[in-house]
Hints:
This protein is α+β, with helices and mostly antiparallel strands. The chain has three domains: 4-163, no CATH class; 176-241, Arc Repressor Mutant, subunit A (Orthogonal Bundle), CATH 1.10.10; 244-310, Tetratricopeptide repeat domain (Serine Threonine Protein Phosphatase 5, Tetratricopeptide repeat, Alpha Horseshoe), CATH 1.25.40.10. Helices cover 54% and strands 12% of the residues. The protein has helices at residues 13-23, 55-66, 72-84, 90-96, 102-121, 152-172, 199-205, 212-219, 223-235, 244-257, 260-272, 278-290, 294-310, and strands at residues 4-7, 27-33, 36-43, 46-50, 127-132, 180-182, 239-241. A five-stranded antiparallel β-sheet has the order 1-5-2-3-4, with helices on one face. It has a two-stranded antiparallel ribbon with strand order 6-7. Helix 5 crosses helix 6, helix 10 (244-257) runs antiparallel to helix 11 and helix 12 runs antiparallel to helix 13 (294-310).
Amino acid sequence: MTSLRGNLDTVDLANILQMLQMNQSEGTLFIASRDGRKAIYFAPDGVSTLSRSRHRNGILGRILVRQGLVTEEQLDDAVRRQAAGSGRLIGQVLVEQGLVRRENIEDALRVQIEEEIYDLFITHDAQFEFVEGPIPAEFNEGGDVNRIAINVNSVIMEAAQRIDEWAWICEIVPDMREIYRYTGVNVELEDPIFEEPVAGRVLAVIDGRRDVEDLIDASFVGRFDACKVLALLLQGEALEPVPPDVLRREADAAVAEGDNRATIKFLARLVELRSDAPDTHRQLAEAYESQCELERAAFHYRVYAEVRVDAG
Length: 312
């Protein structure tokens, strides 16, 4: 196969996947975007997503928790055993502990691969390149890669539906850093939200302090499904963004507690909403500095200094 490369904004990812499956060539499709670099490995016996870090195991564990096959505590224990042991994959550890069966791991891997491919369909300004040959050495240091046979055409059909829904979701949930709280409006049992199998997990972690990224992490639900639940709640007026005065109170409490991560979250949101006083930038700079994020700290120190200079 000749070299295949381009930008996903100008080339249809569905056509690329169909062509690669039809040709049955062994090779790796690399996709690089602002969110990082992903790789999909194609082989005659199946498709897999590749990663150089343990984050991939983390995704698999999250899926098993979401499916109710293991608890968060059991997953944490397995991760500790993995870190202290022979470098086995997290699925192997869980099977050896008798918590799940091998077929459970295969099903979860299939979900993982499909979800990671779905995410690529809603990724913008991404460069792709297909490289023929076996798994690149950079991904093959940790042992065998699990390959799961998936129906690429079914994945493409589901992805097409998700693209349409994602455009609607992004209109209602436009920012992953937004923080939502309940309004007190009751949601009827007949509401479409209760047709979503993961709705309960998302509902349980909305607390007026977590932003969307935190909600995704705490609920163990994928980005698309979690944001869809939030969009349905917002559409039904059961949720609202936390207002600036409450964000300020939360920020002050986080500063008093020395919680730099929470301080950054609340103050950064105030800055984005343009509800910030000069001292907000100073506090934000100090929080970033304490986290060794010096470039961001310098930016906010500079903004604070410029405001002070302008004020004489």
